What does this fold into?
Amino acid sequence: MDIKVDKVSKSMGEVHILDHIDIAVHKHEFVVILGPSGCGKSTLFNIIAGLLLPDEGRILLDGKDYTGQTGRIGYMQQKDLLLPSRTILDNVCIPLVLKGMPQHKARQKAFSYLPDFGLEGFAAYYPRQLSGGMRQRAALLRTYLFASDILLLDEPFVALDAISRRKMQLWLRELRSHYPCTILFVTHDIDEALMLADRIYLFSARPAKVRLEIKTASAPHDVHKETILHLLEEET
It folds into this structure.
């Protein structure tokens, strides 16, 4: 499934946040939005997910207007948002139950995914008993079971320590080979973006504009990194 952000602009009161953002993500592509903190990346995700309406522009899924709609795009925010009173299995099967699947079947289906998501043996654990990385795995599985075609991942590893973050990046890259889907990923970490992405959109400071589109395979990563750093330095 393809997704297109078509000339989207957004303001909050007097603050202009997004300025005619125009990006596309093709089926099974991993695209990263890279930009300085506070530039409007999360606001854009809220618009794509249907939680906010743009002032101008549209969100298109496979060429059809999807602006303001929900249900077909999985959105994982920075915090894992797992329910502390439910086990990991009961947390991850929530989307299936909400879609009308009987509880026992939802649990069976969710359980079958636990090994591939690194959660085998943790079905009966509660969120407080798991590390930050393990909770993020559970949150990602829950997001995938909500909508497996398109995933929005908003800095999912930002709260992790450096070692855990690196492990999660490697794990996510490996997971894609088993569960191909369309991913739009937000970060302000240049190395993370270059490691994970097929393409990168570099955003300016607020109001966000697309400053550059990078195909990561087109040149060595250190060349791309130097270009990105130069453009970001111009923002300061």
User: Anything to note?
Assistant: Residues 162-178 form the longest helix (17 residues). The chain has a mean pLDDT of 93. Residues 1-73+147-221+230-236 form a domain with the Rossmann fold fold (CATH 3.40.50.300).
